[in-house]
Amino acid sequence: MSEIVSQGDQTIIKPGMDVVASMAEDFKKELLSVINESSADIVIDLSGVEMVDSVGIGVIIATHNTLNQSDRKLAVINVAKDVYGLFTTMRLNRRFTVEGVG
Questions:
Q1: CA 51 to each of CA 63, 72, 74: distance values in angstroms, whole numbers, following the listed order
Q2: Could you give the dihedral angle defined by the CA atoms of residues 41, 47, 51 and 55, in that order, rounded to the nearest 10 degrees?
Q3: Three-state SS for 97?
Q4: Which of 37, 79, 96, 99 has an alpha carbon within 20 to 30 A of 57's alpha carbon?
Q5: CA-to-CA distance for 82 and 8, rounded, in angstroms?
Q6: Per-position b or e across 83-99, b if 16+ CB within 10 A of its CB
Q7: What is the fold, at CATH topology level, of the domain defined by 3-100?
């Protein structure tokens, strides 16, 4: 279960575990719930996350696409170095904000 915090015009979601296939369905449901319950931008805080697999990336891209339809923004922050490299290789940082750790 992710930690979810609303701060002004954004909602921060911190999964606290690797974003991989085994947890992706629950994470997707949490994200959709947050998207539907507020009009805030979404920030996914990947503190403590060391791995994001292809299914996890799919969930993050789907979240971006859903938000984009209603002129809302997605940011992914505190991304571990290896995961950040993956995001930039896939050029996801051109679609939404991706910030590395430190």
A1: 18, 26, 19
A2: -20
A3: strand
A4: 37
A5: 31
A6: bbebbeeeebbeebebe
A7: Transcription Regulator spoIIAA (3.30.750)
| Cβ proximity of 73 and 67 under 8 Å | yes
Query: Which residues are 98's β-sheet partners?
Result: 76
Torsion region of 8: left, alpha or beta (phi above 0 gives left; psi -120 to 50 gives alpha): left
What is the per-residue pLDDT across 1-24, written as a single tens digit (0 to 9) for each?
899 999 989 999 999 999 999 999
SS3 (DSSP) at 7: strand
pTM higher than 0.90, yes or no?
yes
- Give the list of residues 6+ apart from residue 71 with CB closer than 8 angstroms, or none: none
pLDDT in tens, 22-42: 999 999 999 999 999 999 999
SS3 18: coil
- How far separated are the first and last CA of the chain, in Å rounded? 25
